[in-house]
Amino acid sequence: WHVAPSHVHSQFEALDGAIDARGFNLVRAAGKEHVVKTSQHDALQGECHWYRSIPPSLADLFPKPLEVVDGPTAVEGDGFWMIRMTRVAGVTFSHLATSRLLMKAWIRRLVRELHRIHSQQPVPGTAAAAELKATNAELCYNYAAKVASRWKKHEALYTTLGEETGLDLRKMKDCTVGFLEEFEASERAQHAFYIHGDPVFSNVIRTADDGIALIDMRGELGGRLTTQGDVQYDLSKVYQSLCGYDFMMLDQAPDAATSEVFDGLRAVFWEEVQKLYPSVLHRDVRLITASHFFSMVPLHELRSRMARYLRASSSMLMVEGLM
């Protein structure tokens, strides 16, 4: 989410504290109680689908959708997808993390709430219940194929970044794609009818009443609108933030004391994963996270951030013995 550019005029107010994102969506306040999210890009259609599909038993984890309009629809003369939702009072885990205020108990709660989502079955008689179960190929759509596609489309960018950082990015790409292809061939993806799709800390809110609210769900898999996915994708996104992603977004490097705090946060994360997801291989989650850092590079504009992502990915690949 990000605030509207200065040339955009509307009936809605800019949302204080909105997060600088990839430029797809606008999030604006509509009075004190509501938020309106709009997009001229079909990236919002998956989230529209997610809001329409929220089971009653999970409704407490998300803003309440008041109006969901699939685009393109006319808003102030332009084509838009739109979601009007309740405004959630609270602070993001991203803000807590970068302020050194994120506690271990909240990591435990986040993993447990994600497990609630992953354990949810479709309500009989709903559209979700009538959906075809996602295949292994669909569950793995955002893995090897995505990394290979990003490399092919942005090879020139990766080449120059490799020269600037001194990293062998082609070898990193080959190692990453090779692991992800083996992951898919071994059918280690673990199906859930509901995954969030991007639970990085900027999309997790500690609410004013000490609850957790989740925003920016994805709701799309390989061009198909669905809430289904691989549970390890969600876990890897949490781990992405536990590896310092929010600091990278601020072009900051954690100091020694902060690094020690994050060591503790990662430890409790793995404790919860071991308890709630006993069949998940921790190495798989770590390497999927490494693939995120590698493939997200073209989605960001600052080269300093790109270099941080690539160094993080390289370090993880080396620790896991792939480089």
TrEMBL record:
Chain ranges passing through the membrane: none
- Taking every annotated instance into account, which residue ranges of this chain make up the domain Aminoglycoside phosphotransferase? 26-243
Pfam (any one): APH
InterPro entries, per this entry? Aminoglycoside_PTrfase (IPR002575), Kinase-like_dom_sf (IPR011009)
Q: What is this protein called?
A: Aminoglycoside phosphotransferase domain-containing protein
Q: What taxonomic lineage is listed for the species of origin?
A: Eukaryota, Sar, Alveolata, Dinophyceae, Gonyaulacales
